[in-house]
Amino acid sequence: MTLVYALIVGVAMGALIQRVGASSPKMILASLRLENLSIIKFMATTIAVGMVGVYALSTVMPMHFDIKPTYVVGVALGGLIFGVGFAVGGYCPGTCVVGIGEGRRDALAALLGGVTGALVF
Predict the structure, then answer these.
(1) Is 28 within 8 Å of 39 (Cβ atoms)?
(2) DSSP alpha helices (H): ranges in the chain?
């Protein structure tokens, strides 16, 4: 049953990402240049709704939010690799999946590059 809920949330999130235009590399670039703030507003709204949802769920079922120790070198290296891939490809992991659904071949290349990098790691 949990997988059904995850599928519903994933499809809804993908539809919203597509609706706001976040699957377009041009739109992502405009957001990074602070020329169009619609994606940034969408992300802020998504984070706020997610926080409220997780808090509500934590009152019903037990959860633990342990803070893990910071691994600065790994976070810096991973952020650098992710940032370069994001800048070159124009997609982040979520938006490239939506781009594939729209039929964008460059999004497929971005996803394959990400999966390859994860497997190499």
Answers:
(1) yes
(2) 2-20, 25-32, 38-60, 72-89, 93-101, 105-120
Task: Report the distance separating Cα 25 and Cα 92, nearest Å.
Answer: 10
Q: Tokens standing for 83?
A: 């940032």
Interior angle at CA 25, CA 5 and CA 33, nearest 5: 110
- pLDDT band at 52; cut points 50, 70, 90: very high
Using CA atoms of 29, 30, 36, 37 in order, give the dihedral in degrees to the nearest 10: 20
Residue range 10-47, pLDDT digits in tens: 899 889 888 888 888 888 888 888 999 988 899 899 99
Q: Which long-range contacts (CB under 8 A, 24 or more apart) does 58-67 make?
A: none
Longest dimension (CA), the chain: 43
Amino acid at the residue 87? A
Q: How far is CA 17 from the centre of its chain?
A: 10
Whole-structure pTM value: 0.72
In whole angstroms, give the CA distance from residue 63 to residue 42: 26
